[in-house]
Amino acid sequence: MKSIMGAEPRRLLSAFAQSRCLLAFDFDGTLAPIVSDPDGAKMRSSTNDLLAELTCRYPCIVISGRSLADVRRRVVGLGLKGIVGNHGIEPFQGTKSGERRVRNWRARFDAALRQETGVRVENKTHSLAIHVRHARAKGRARRIVGEVASKLEGVRLLGGKEVINVVPIEAPHKGMALERERARLRCDTAIYVGDDETDEDVFALDQPDRLLSIRIGRKAASHASFYLRAQPEIDRLLRELIRLRGRKCLWPTRTLPRTPCATLPRDGRGDSDT
């Protein structure tokens, strides 16, 4: 794994930028810093402005573990060509039967974790996020989650930073979502930036001629080819991508009302990615 900001990788970045390239980003830990309260997650104003400028030059999407409604309100007005929620399930794969199954799962996890202080089970309609950041006994909470999941049919567990995601085993993952969006937007190549275990489904696609995979934070076990040292470096990458396309606005978008990041609605639940 190499730094994407090194001399040789930047030449590769330039080659991708000159192609019909889709830019795709995770949200928590990538566009926005990880925070102790997932509901308060937001992009820095600098990242918000850079992303708005970037969408004029490339087709850009966000693929998040958050619910579609949750992530949508955090990126409103930025000119994105697509938003994918629930690790790839929304907006195309959600079903009423799936929603009922997730509600049943939540009841099982709620009962098993009732005595675990600081654990929160979040129903994201098509999947669950079990938050353990504030758990008094994180190891025990994770063990209980694994035990409950082993007794349920059709469950896939996805690890995350202080969160365990419970998704239907047949649900599309982030890698499948990226491929679907690239085909929909008729792009030849893609650059994907993520930070967590849930992003490994993209990194593992192993398409060096078509996919440039960048992880936030170096990790030897990751399938990503390149890394940024820490989340604040996302601004440096966005600036470089803007520079590589020049000042021309290649992808004009309809102007939507902008919602300042600092005044996001508080009427939904978020996950910490997720």
Notable features of this structure?
274 residues, alpha/beta, seven-stranded parallel beta sheet, globular
Largest sheet: 7 strands, parallel
Shape: globular
| Gap from first CA to last CA | 23 Å
Structural class, judged by helices and strands? alpha/beta
- Could you spell the SSE succession in H and E letters? EHEHEHEHEEHEEHEHEEH
Contiguous helical run count: 8
Radius of gyration over C-alpha positions, nearest whole angstrom: 18 Å
Strand order of the largest sheet: 1-11-10-9-2-3-4
Strand content: 15-25%
Topology, number of strands? 11
Overall mean confidence score, pLDDT: 88
Helix fraction bin: 25-40%
Low-confidence stretches: 252-272
Structure summarized in a few sentences:
The protein is α/β, with parallel strands linked by helices.
What's the topology here?
Blueprint: E1 2-3, H1 7-17, E2 21-25, H2 45-54, E3 60-63, H3 68-74, E4 82-84, H4 96-112, E5 120-123, E6 128-131, H5 138-150, E7 155-160, E8 163-168, H6 174-184, E9 189-194, H7 200-203, E10 211-216, E11 226-228, H8 234-245
Parallel strand pairs: 1-11, 2-3, 2-9, 3-4, 9-10, 10-11
Antiparallel strand pairs: 5-6, 6-8, 7-8
